[in-house]
Amino acid sequence: MEVAEFAAQAHAGQQRHNGAPYITHPVAVACIAAGWHLDEESVAAGLLHDVVEDCPYSVADLEERFGPKVAAIVDGVSKIERLEQFEPPGSRERRQAESFRKLLLAVAKDWRVLLIKLADRLHNMRTLANVPRRSKRERIADETLDIYAPLAERLGFQQVRDELQMLSFEHRHPLRFAALSSALERSAERQRVALPKIRRQLTAGLEKAGIKATLQSRSKNVYSVYRKMVDKDLSFREVDDLIGFRLVTESRLDCYTALGVVHEKFRPVPEKVKDYIAQPKVNGYQSLHTTVLAPNGNIIELQIRTKEMDQLAEVGVAAHWEYKSSNAAAHGGEAAIQHDTNKQLDNLFSMSKLGIEPGEFLRNLRLDLYPDDIFALTPRGEVIQLNRGATVLDLAYAVHTDLGTKADHALVNGTRMPISTKLNSGDIVEVRTAAHVAPKPQWLGYVATPKARTQIRHQLKEAWNAELVQLGARLLAQALQRCGGDFATLDPNRYLNYVRHNAGLDSKEQLQTQLALGIYQADVVARDLMGAKARTGGRAEGIKVRGDRHAGMVRASCCEPLPPEPVVGVMKRAEGVQIHRRGCPAVAKRLEAGDCVELEWEAGEDALYQAALRLECTNRKGLIANVLGQFGSQQVNIVTLSLASAEQDNPVARIELVVEVADGPQLERLLRTLNRIAGVTAAREKLPV
């Protein structure tokens, strides 16, 4: 009985999700295998790959009918599929890890297991829309994007990788996929006018140089555009190399000659010329890449390779079948192909045999499948995978949230470095912590990984909320003192009842937060809580103010107070406490009426306040360097700086800065020093008029 007839009979009566006969899937897998020019055994295994799993036949039955090699391939694929379908609660990571461990062990015996599995996954992705449950579609798409697409790339299956990525992206983010697809189509339509002229120029140049080559136009796929936008934080308009050409030549020498022709016709972008022929990628990919600027302003990417390189780039290890199976004596036949496959997956095979726990296995698997990411090491040798551009702080959060929260500095390859230091693959990083350290808003500018950014935002929000609760409690304590009471004498049941029934809130913390933000008035709440016991008068202890980032407090822009000047606070609805100098005209009436919050500065070496400065200078050589040098010598940090250069009709240059100082005296010393610099006509604090 023919293989196709046997498969059809075995799957008789079975249906796919869309109601089509199940045999359509094995036939499609076999056709994909045939399209990759695989051998008859691979095509037969494609037809039979689900027979053992879904039909009353054993591996022994297949071995008897179709031989041991076909049966072995089907057995390898079946074991993987059996694990993928079996998913007890809470075991997805374990199931996924064991599935890929089995896959790798099967591939180590016969490389065709992976090809049939990739063909199977490719057809399943092409028909994924028929799966009724959205969560299952998303899980399959995530798994494909996470594991199968990188596996295809590792084996050089660029054609398969691109399609798996596209299909996964379409099902995982359908709206983004549709929007980008539409934008790419519009862009391609605009470029279509320019392409024929560029093609004619290239063709003429190649013919003149005596080079036989085929020239194919190509455009970036949707997923690669999306990844570039995300990784480099670009808008669609900023992605410049959307179109390109592929030149396929007769020989390696022709590739380099063609590169010269291209650069003679069009101006190259120097940093985007790459030679993957002399230095192939880890998966064996070979090609010359260059990006050039066409006369009409288009940015064009060109790939230049031989026919064999092109075949290898598209279908990877499967291309070896055409070149090696035809001459086993010269090239080693199947053994050579198996050797090439094992070489590409050597690290993965080693991991699969170690028996490490599933979570670690999956992490290591991803490390090996994503060569463009950064892999830093901890002092114990643990490999940490990070986005390109990641910093010490990213690594700290990747290791443990607590390590990130308290990260102070690091030893990078033995040298002390700040937490904002960008890392390279292979760096050995030891993160050092300090008890006084806490996440700061500027940390968000230090990180490149989503995990670190999410954690920092969450921690900043929690710290902000905690500070608001504490500030609200202190405001209420002040108000209670003015009424002749305190928290110790306050009936807790009365307080809770007031929170729930009078204020309509769920907790004391919510009330205290709203007190801090000025939504509720502390004096009103205190009088209500004290009732008949309330009295006026009494001096409340001042609330401590420290640093510019105190939750619920802001220094008034009209007077910009700095320690040790006496200060008071006024409540601003939804803003909290506004800090003024005690002598500020804006609060004179409220101060006289006793309608202010008592405040006092809290001493602290790390408490910093921002001050805006304006310097007017004559245009003198070296002046800017002299000015900026004074900030370093006085240990004053510059937050922002803007410079308006002097012009012929106006020889005065203006420098405006925002700096961080510890107190008023430090600011005064800085201004005195700046005013003594030759060429500085005036240096003063910049306050609103």
From TrEMBL:
Ranges of residues in domain ACT: 612-688
InterPro entries associated with the record: ACT-like_dom_sf, ACT_dom, Beta-grasp_dom_sf, HD/PDEase_dom, NT_sf, RelA/Spo_fam, RelA_SpoT, TGS
Highest taxon of the lineage: Bacteria
Catalytic reaction annotation: guanosine 3',5'-bis(diphosphate) + H2O = GDP + diphosphate + H(+)
Enzyme Commission number: 3.1.7.2
Pfam families the UniProt entry points to: ACT_4 (PF13291), HD_4 (PF13328), RelA_SpoT (PF04607), TGS (PF02824)
Keywords: Hydrolase
Top-level class of the enzyme under EC nomenclature: hydrolase
GO cellular component, one term: plasma membrane
Single GO molecular function: GTP diphosphokinase activity
Domain (TGS): residue spans on this chain: 368-433
Protein's GO biological process: guanosine tetraphosphate metabolic process; nucleobase-containing small molecule interconversion; response to starvation
Gene3D superfamilies: 3.10.20.30, 3.30.70.260, Beta Polymerase, domain 2, Hypothetical protein af1432
Pathway membership: Purine metabolism; ppGpp biosynthesis; ppGpp from GDP: step 1/1
Family annotation (NCBIfam families): spoT_relA
Function: In eubacteria ppGpp (guanosine 3'-diphosphate 5'-diphosphate) is a mediator of the stringent response that coordinates a variety of cellular activities in response to changes in nutritional abundance.
Family classification: Belongs to the relA/spoT family.
Protein name: guanosine-3',5'-bis(diphosphate) 3'-diphosphatase
Organism: Candidatus Amphirhobacter heronislandensis
Lineage: Bacteria, Pseudomonadati, Pseudomonadota, Gammaproteobacteria, Candidatus Tethybacterales
